[in-house]
Amino acid sequence: MKKILSLALVAIALVASLGFAPAVLADDVGADVKVRGVGELTAHGDGIALLGGRGKVELSGNGTLWIKDVAGDARIEVSGYGRKKVFADGWVQYAGLHGTADIKGSNIRVVVAGVNIDLYAKGRGGAILWGHGTYQINGRPGEWSTVFPKPVLITPAE
Predict the structure, then answer these.
(1) Rg (CA), the chain
(2) Where in the chain are the domains?
(3) What percent of the chain has pLDDT over 70?
(4) Rounded to 5 degrees, what angle do the CA atoms 23, 25, 29 make?
C-alpha cells in the first residue's frame, strides 16, 4: 500500500508540473528526444505510464488512473475497485484502482501510477514510462527507467 501511495504522490507531482500530460505529445523532451510515432506498445511493471494520442489503450493494475478524452469521442470502460472522480477540466480519476481499463479514441490522454501494471497501446501518439519493468515497442524489448523523463519512443511500424 505504501508503494502505491508513493507512486501516486509522485504521479500527482509530475502531472501537476507537466500540466497533466502535454509532455506526452510534445515534439521534444530535453534536447532532441522525439516521443511521437505509430506502433504498438506492451509493458509490465511498477511506476508511472503517461500516454497520449489516437488509438487504444488496455491496462490492468493497482494504483491510480487518470483519463482525458480531449476529442470527446472516446469509448472508456473501467472495471474493478476504486473511486471515480470527474474534474471540471475533463480529467477523470480512478483512485485506488484495482482492475482494468479499455480506452479508445481519436485524442486521449492516459496516466497510470501503480504496481503490477500490464499495458497494451496501439495507435499514433507517445508514451513515457518511469519506474521498473519491461516493455516492447513493435516487438523490440526494453526496460523502464527511473530517470525521468526518459521517453519511450514509438516508431513507425515497418
Answers:
(1) 14
(2) 2-152
(3) 70
(4) 50
